[in-house]
Design brief:
16 helices; Heme Oxygenase, Chain A; mainly alpha; about 0% strand; about 375 residues
């Protein structure tokens, strides 16, 4: 798919590293590359562009244009748009456009992701329901393919796709901390403390993943590969950002994190084995190996002390907890299927090839 062309930019303007993919993201890129004091004309018709984009889109989850637009708007809150004025973060017209996009995105997710049968609102019952939900067989496995068959080039694509979330690992779920109280808040902080290295910067999980990328000769700067990945990869992160940033969806972000942790340990063992199989060393596999043990503990905390306790404290959030958990499984399943289908058909899972790696991603030894 051809990227939209950028407008000519004056030397003094910010140059975002992300290219637009349609008229909505084009408008937002142009806006964010402009000084807020000079942007009145663009702001005047921004909402109409967003409304038209939504009306024209049959499938917002897989819309390149609208997913890039949401990624950019959430980037204002994460601080991941280098050089963009901080004044844009709470600019009323931009917030209004984000809400328009979120309304359409959430509606699409709720139409596609069924809410599982609700358990009793007790910690044990919710944890049991979440473990049952996440243990269900879901068909061909990307993790098993990586462990047994993936080539070095496919492993490189896998890491590029995962970088969109993992270089910001834990951040979307951390939005929920001030929205919780008591037991669930303490449980979330316990999990997140591990994600952020327990006070040791070199053990922050996002930093460990950056080391994996550098070990493969990839660019570990955040967002370096946004233009390379398909809409569904952006949708996975955008869904987390939407759940985490909106207090009314705190049940969904808690359920999402519970499912995320419950489906992490075994796949990461497969991923680590796959990278070892082709000869990568501990500098590359550390991230995956770290999650085998850590997430086996986190899943217990997330199921009972976080999601279960939240349901006990506020049973009105139970449906959203289960919805968020299933949304994690469904949307990440779509993203994984996109990669697996491409790998099995010997085509690229990316929109464009990775050509800017600093060092070729070739392991030092190859094991049979």
């Amino acid at each position: 798919m051809k990227l939209y062309e950028r407008p000519a930019a004056a030397a003094s303007r910010t140059q975002l590293p992300f290219a637009p993919r349609g008229h909505v993201s084009q408008r937002i890129v142009t806006l964010l590359e402009t000084d807020p004091a000079d942007a009145a004309v663009i702001l005047n018709d921004l909402a109409s562009h967003v409304e038209r984009g939504i009306a024209e889109t049959a499938d917002i989850v897989n819309s390149d244009d609208l997913q890039v637009a949401m990624f950019l708007l959430y980037g204002l809150h994460y601080g991941s748009l280098t050089g963009v004025s901080a004044d844009w973060e709470w600019q009323p017209e931009l917030v209004a456009c984000r809400l328009l996009l979120e309304s359409a995105f959430e509606a699409a997710l709720r139409a596609s992701v069924p809410v599982p049968e609700l358990p009793a609102p007790t910690a044990e019952a919710v944890a049991a329901a979440l473990f049952a939900l996440t243990s269900a067989e879901s068909g061909p496995s990307l993790a098993r393919f990586v462990a047994k068959k993936a080539t070095v080039a496919q492993l490189e694509e896998f890491v590029v796709q995962r970088s969109i979330y993992t270089l910001r690992e834990a951040d979307p779920h951390s939005w929920a901390i001030p929205r919780l109280t008591g037991r669930p808040k303490a449980a979330l902080v316990e999990i997140q403390a591990d994600e952020y290295g327990g006070g040791r910067p070199e053990r922050v999980h996002a930093e460990i993943f950056a080391a994996t990328m550098r070990g493969m000769g990839l660019n570990a700067s955040y967002g370096a590969y946004v233009d390379h990945v398909p809409a569904i990869t952006l949708a996975s992160l955008n869904m987390m950002s939407m759940f985490g940033l909106n207090r009314r969806l705190r049940g969904a972000i808690v359920g999402h994190l519970a499912a995320f942790e419950m489906t992490s340990s075994i796949p990461n063992r497969h991923y680590g084995n796959g990278f070892r199989r082709v000869g990568f060393g501990e500098d590359v596999t550390w991230y995956f190996d770290e999650h085998v043990a850590a997430d086996a503990v986190h899943e217990q905390i997330a199921g009972r002390d976080l999601a279960g306790a939240l349901a006990e404290d506020d049973p009105t959030l139970l449906a959203d907890i289960m919805f968020g958990a299933n949304a994690c499984l469904v949307v990440d399943g779509w993203a994984g299927a996109q990669m697996l289908d491409a790998f099995m058909s010997h085509t690229s899972s990316l929109r464009m090839p990775v050509v800017d790696a600093a060092v070729p991603a070739v392991p030092t030894t190859v094991q049979s």
